[in-house]
Known about the structure:
CATH superfamily of the largest domain: Winged helix-like DNA-binding domain superfamily/Winged helix DNA-binding domain
Number of domains: 2
Strand order of the largest sheet: 1-2
Number of strands: 2
CATH class of the largest domain: Mainly Alpha
Helix content: 55-70%
Structural class: mainly alpha
Number of helices: 8
Radius of gyration: 23 Å
Order of helices and strands: HHHEEHHHHH
Amino acid sequence: MTASAQIKRSPLAMALLGILHLEPMHPYAIQRRIKEWGKDKVVNVTQRAALYKTIARLQDAGLVTVRETGRDQLYPERTVYEITDAGRAAFGTWLAEMLGEPRNEYPEFPAALSFLMLLGTDAAHTELERRAKALRDQLAEMATEADQAANMGLPRVVMLEDEYLRAVTEAELRWLEGVLADLAAGTLTWSFESLAPFQSDTPEPPQA
């Protein structure tokens, strides 16, 4: 079994290897670098404990190792980590798989949509309109950030995740506005009575 097969890949684990691929660093600096680069939009680094746990998992799998431990006046004891050859190989494998192989990541919104019928149509319209407003606000913020990046002359390749998120958010909003229009027009409607025939247990297949 390879080192990369001993640990389940995740966006955070991949990001940690990517940061350490560039230079050795201690966990606080890794977290700060991810935020400075705006990668916290796609990698959750809000919990420092999760960061340390992921580093420990990478270390146990032989993908990172301790380079040095030291102190200074501003920080308590700091452990600087560096990527290993196995870590570089794992990073390349994970990056290729995550780019090239679609994966069902089970986000919350589709899961909630699968039970939308348990709300009345009015309540469904209210909540979906609230989401649509939030998406419009997000798109306005994304547009501002894109303008700032363009003014800074940042190369497109370092902003591709922002470009992707903006495209996905725009597509979701278009779809959501269509659903809201159908709810408002009454062409999308339901009742518990109309759904009752579909709530029975799935019949067993006929015996051979």
